[in-house]
Amino acid sequence: MTDNPTLSVIVPVLNEAESLNQLYTEIKTSLDKESEWEIIFIDDGSDDNSHRIIQRIAENDSRVTLIRFFKNFGKADALSEGFNLAQRDIIITLDSDLQDDPMEIPHLVKKIQEGWDMVSGWKKFRHDPPSKRIPSKIFNFVTRIFTGVKIHDFNCGLKAYRRKVVKSIDIYGGLHRYIPALASQKGFSVTEIEVNHRP
User: Fold this and answer.
1) Which of 3, 38, 112, 118 is deepest in the core (most CB within 10 A)?
2) pLDDT tier for residue 126 given thresholds of 50, 70 and 90
3) Which of 176, 127, 120, 126 is nearest to 150 (CA)?
């Protein structure tokens, strides 16, 4: 891979109208030193103003694409559509609610450039209530035991992949939670790095 890989950033969106302008600005800032990039927003059936806000962003930035689902299919389907469309060297995914910090994108890219096929974010210090943190810890522990993939946070939305990974896995239903395990089963190398998690 070259020193200046091209990037596709995939952002599933569901009713996040209030966060989208800030999210776009932060992603753009984090990518400014990259040679070539695109952002693919997948509006997964939002019933607020999300798609109109993304349309306005796309009208002013040709590197932004909006894909709109007319009903809610779920995060796995949104990611799958983004994976189908992404054509750059490295694919980044992150959630649209501003909890994932776009300034972590260069760190994910750097880790990929060390030779890994997939890098998952680890929200080591989470700003979530116990009602979310405790079930997540149990899920991650059980998944780690049964899959043999030694990472702490399978379900973090902030991830990086070489293009060959996303073109090789098929996700639907709730399988987005198991992407690191699916990638590992295909023979790809998987690791994680700590990432900032925001309230």
Assistant:
1) 118
2) low
3) 120
* DSSP, res 197: B
Whether the per-residue pLDDT at 1 is higher than 60: the answer is: no
pLDDT of residue 45: 96
Give the predicted TM-score (pTM) of the model: 0.89
Burial 59-96 (b: 16+ CB within 10 A, else e): eeeeebbbbebeeeebbbbbbbbbbeebebbbbbbbbb
| Cα 150–Cα 153–Cα 154 angle in degrees, nearest 5 | 80
Burial class (CB in 10 A: 0-12, 13-18, 19+), 41: buried
| pLDDT for 136 beyond 80 | no
Long-range contacts from 168-173, C-beta under 8 angstroms, 24+ separation: 169/83, 170/80, 171/76, 171/79, 171/80, 171/83, 172/76, 172/77, 172/80, 173/74, 173/76
Provide the CB-side half-sphere exposure for 8 (13 A, CA): 22
What's the rounded Cα separation, in Å, for the pair 78 and 163? 17
Mean pLDDT of 76-84: 95
